[in-house]
Amino acid sequence: YILTRMEAEGLTFEACLADAQRLGYAEADPTFDIEGNDTAHKLSILTSLAFGTKIAADDIYMEGISNISQADIRAAGELGYRIKLLGVAQKTDSGIEQRVHPTMVPTASVIAQVHGVTNAVAIETDILGELLLSGPGAGGNATASAVVGDIADIAKSRPGFQHGPVFGLPARELRPYKKARMRSHEGGYFIRLTVHDRVGVFAAVAKRMADNEISLESIVQHATDAETEAQKTV
C-alpha cells in the first residue's frame, strides 16, 4: 500500500504510513509492517510448506521499506522497474535461502502489477512454470477471513475428522532447516549516489566497482538543485 501510494501520487513515506495507520492497514506501532517482520513470519510458514522443513523465522535476512524515498521510486521507474517488498525462499546448493527486502522488479512482470493492499504469492514450479496467487492482504475483512479459516482448520484437526496435517505431514516429521548464508547470494543491485559534479567522478566510481569485480549494467546521471552535486544511479 505504502509503495503504491508513493509511486502513484508522489507522496512521502511518512505521509503514506500515516494514512495506512488511519485506515487500519498498519498498526499504531508499525515496526512489523514496515521493517519486514510481518512478511518474514509469513515467509517462514510458506518455506515450511514448500520444502517440508521446520519453521525458522529467526534465520531470515530482513530489510524493510522505511528508507525508501521518492528519489528511489523515480530512479527505479527510469530504469524500467518498480520497487516491491518481497519475501523470497529458494533452495540453493548450500541450503535454503530466506530473505525479505525491497526489490526492483520489471514493470512488465506479473508481480509488479500487484498494487495497494493486495498480497501475492509467486510459486516457481518444475512443470507448470510460475503460478501467482493474489488477494486482499490487509483490512478488517481479510484479517477476519484468515482468523476464521485458521479456527476451522483447528476444529477439523480433532480426532474423528479426516483432515490432513497443516504442513502436509506431522510437525514432528518436518526436516531440519539448513540455512544458506545471505552473503553467498548473487544478484543485481541498485546504488544511488550523490557526488560532486566534477571531472573524474564517474571514472572513480567505475574503477572502484571494477577493483571489486563488479560489472556495471547502466549508469544514469542527473543534476541536483545544488550547483556542485549530481546524482548517479548505478
From TrEMBL:
Does this UniProt record's set of keywords contain NADP?
Answer: yes
Q: Which residue intervals define the domain ACT in the entry? A: 190-234
Keywords from the named record: NADP, Oxidoreductase
**Pfam families of this UniProt entry?**
ACT (PF01842), Homoserine_dh (PF00742)
What the entry lists under Gene3D superfamilies is as follows: 3.30.70.260, Dihydrodipicolinate Reductase, domain 2, NAD(P)-binding Rossmann-like Domain
Query: What superkingdom heads the lineage?
Result: Bacteria
Q: Does the keyword Nucleotide-binding apply?
A: no
Q: EC number(s)?
A: 1.1.1.3
What InterPro entries does the record point to? ACT-like_dom_sf, ACT_dom, HDH_cat, HDH_CS
Which GO molecular function, any one, fits this protein according to its record?
Answer: homoserine dehydrogenase activity
**GO biological process terms held by the UniProt record:** threonine biosynthetic process
PROSITE patterns linked: ACT (PS51671), HOMOSER_DHGENASE (PS01042)
Checking NCBIfam families in the record gives: PRK06349.1
Describe the family membership recorded for this protein in Swiss-Prot or TrEMBL. Answer: Belongs to the homoserine dehydrogenase family.
Record's protein name: homoserine dehydrogenase
* Lineage of the species this protein comes from: Bacteria, Pseudomonadati, Pseudomonadota, Alphaproteobacteria, Hyphomicrobiales
